[in-house]
Amino acid sequence: MRKTFLSYFRGMKDHRINRQKQHPLENIVAIATVAAICNMETWKDISDFGKAKQAFFSKFLDLTNGIPSKDTFRRFFSALDPQVFEFHFLQWARSLSENINGEVVSIDGKTIRLASRMRENNKSIHLISAWASSNRLILGQVKTDEKSNEITAIPTLLEALFLEGTTVTIDAMGCQKNIVEKIVEKNADYVLALKENHPTLLEDVTRSFDKKPCHEFYQTLDCGHGRIEERKCSIITDLDFLLDRNSWKNLYSIVRIESQRIIKKTGVVQKETRYYISSLTTVEKISNAIRCHWGVENKVHYCLDVIFGEDSSSKREGFAAQNFSLLNKIVLNLIRKHEDIDNNEYRKKSSVKSKRRLAGYYDAYLFELLNLI
User: Fold this and answer.
1) DSSP per-residue string spanning 293-314
2) CA-to-CA distance for 10 and 29, rounded, in angstroms?
3) 309: left (phi > 0), else alpha (psi -120 to 50), else beta?
4) What's residue 248's pLDDT?
5) Angle, vertex CA 341, rays to CA 340 and CA 343, nearest 5
6) pLDDT digits (tens, 9 = 90+) for 288-343
7) What is the distance between the alpha carbons of residues 261 and 269, in angstroms, rounded to a whole number?
8) Under DSSP, is residue 328 helix (H, G, I), strand (E, B) or coil?
9) Per-residue pLDDT tens over the stretch 32-74
10) In whole angstroms, what is the distance from residue 347 CA to residue 163 CA?
11) Distance between CA 43 and CA 49 in Å, rounded?
12) How far is CA 104 from CA 128, 248, 338, in A?
């Protein structure tokens, strides 16, 4: 029998001193999570929601001391060690993952803009997330103070994840030799974007496609959203000409993506060429992995900004912004995983925004989301 959601966080180290523990840790985490599902954003909203839904929470929580105040929620999540919270999140997310063999795991970073601007030290809050495309789950999160520090933070995230049998995709910032070594060490494959941060390698790869015949290519055509897009993925697997080949572990192919997009309304034609390096040698797998990478932008970052309003969040005290971002990711995982087993046709077709609204209306639906895990 699958463990419940709370069981993964119940054993989390409590940073509060004993005389301040009027409310159990699991109460604070559970109420904040359910409130986040139902679109509550401020600490006052969360506390007020808990009071309004006290009868609901009393069915599975010990509310002897009532509902925590807004200040209790604020102090708790501002002081909670995010690494501890992220560790327990990772264990829970892993329990939700089904067959991960052949999965595409996309890694990308996002800055919480307003909270970053409001911090006293003016340091940005930049979070790196891992997204499993087939399972439609956020697998983990780590923080780095500056975008340039993604290079050091990505290996930390990779180390925490179970990646055997997967293909890891990262944008050009993550195209680093130590990151490649870490991916291979985890028994995974990689497809990494190549740009001007490796000028010599990029020049060699670009020249290779201009002069050498490609071993294979794979073409796709998509129509929708007012445009027609044609993509051609070409690979070269004979890499003897690459001077730096041996310093990139398991580098077996170089990749070129040529895309042409026609905007139906205006007739404007947009062309783009991108390059990648990969440990894979099957052109269709490589093309699919590159397409899947955009899921972390569309299904994670876009949702967090547009539906959850994360970019406009003003939480800046301590670790509040980082921990609340993780709460939002818990909510996304709950809703996305529930979509896979939801037998109600209306709810299955509902957007994430609609499902959050439904959860606020119906206690029975809230129980469905929570009992799922």
Assistant:
1) HTHIIIIIIHIIIIIS-GGG--
2) 9
3) left
4) 95
5) 120
6) 999 999 888 888 988 888 888 887 777 778 889 889 999 999 999 999 888 655 56
7) 6
8) helix
9) 999 999 999 899 999 999 999 999 999 999 999 999 999 999 9
10) 32
11) 10
12) 16, 20, 20
Report pLDDT digits (tens) over 177-214: 999 999 999 999 999 999 998 999 999 999 988 887 66
Distance between CA atoms of residues 278 and 253, nearest Å: 5
Q: What is the pTM of this model?
A: 0.87
- Please tell me the class of the 85-302 domain: alpha beta
Task: CATH 3.90.350.10 in the chain: give the residue spans.
Answer: 85-302
Give me the chain's average pLDDT, please.
86
Q: Give, as one character, the DSSP assignment of residue 134.
A: T
Residue 207 near residue 275, CB atoms below 8 Å: no
Cα 75 to Cα 16: distance, rounded to the nearest angstrom: 10
Question: Nearest Cα to 248, choosing from 320, 304, 319, 174?
Answer: 174
Tokens 């690459």, residue located: 242
In the chain, the largest separation of any two C-alpha atoms, in whole Å, equals 75
| Cα–Cα distance measured from residue 314 to residue 295, given in angstroms and rounded to the nearest whole number | 26
